[in-house]
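INFO batch 0412 | record 1 of 1 | parsing
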Amino acid sequence: MPSAGPFFMRMRRVIAETLGAVAGGYLLLTGGMAVFQRDFIYHPATEPPPPPAEIGLPEMVPVTMITGDGYVITGWYAPAQNPRAATVVLFHGNAGTLAHRARKARAFLDAGFGMFLAEYRGYGGNPGKPSEEGLYADARAVMTWLSNAGIPSAKVVVYGESLGSGVAVQMAAEAERLAALVLEAPFTSLPDLAPPYLLPGSARLLMVDRYDNAAKIGPLEMPLLIIHGEQDGLVPAAMGRALFAAATAAEKELSIHPEAAHNDVWDLGGGEAALDFLARRLVK
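INFO prediction complete | emitting tokens
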């Protein structure tokens, strides 16, 4: 009877080589994601937007700010018609530009609010490349500009949309006081959105930009509204619910829209929820 030894030795070698190839491929994949992670996170439209008047916002004018790290950033602003009304600052998601949020700005302006459409470095003709700390610096420049224009943070509503929810939560954490915080399709943290094929815990080790909303939202005291679509396939509604549960604000509301996904939640009830929430608290 022939010996089975050589057969098992060959099998062990094949298995070892296969496992080595799989491990090498996985390391190559995760290494590529680590190196190019910001290309996966940020999808800016880099061309300058059209003038505000051309997209239905004749009240808004471009304004420029200098960030703490020296970038000149342009956003759009319109004052409230009623000097006692709050100003909504909108930090948009990871794609497009501020111009793609014109319908939202139009709704807030028509409701009597002032409006600031914030823009980020690397987006809409602005210089630089986006990053978590970079977007925070851009947002701080907006908040400083408003303060210098005579609009204190207590008269500011910070609205964060998707990726912008991370910027909004950070600004809320830094502000002495805000009129309100509104989060549309927010996530708990970017590592929590990592692909399921990554080993548990590896995303937190690999990702540089984290926007850890879950770690920051608890102590925030301003009125809070969280809007989410139940059909959201990009940021699960469970994350909105988790943030709502973690929040300790005395005034907080969760608005879940059964038919809405990620990009249409504003149109399928989220916009009405935001305007109603703010009107009940801020419009006199």
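INFO post-check: DSSP finds nine helices and ten strands in the chain.
INFO record closed
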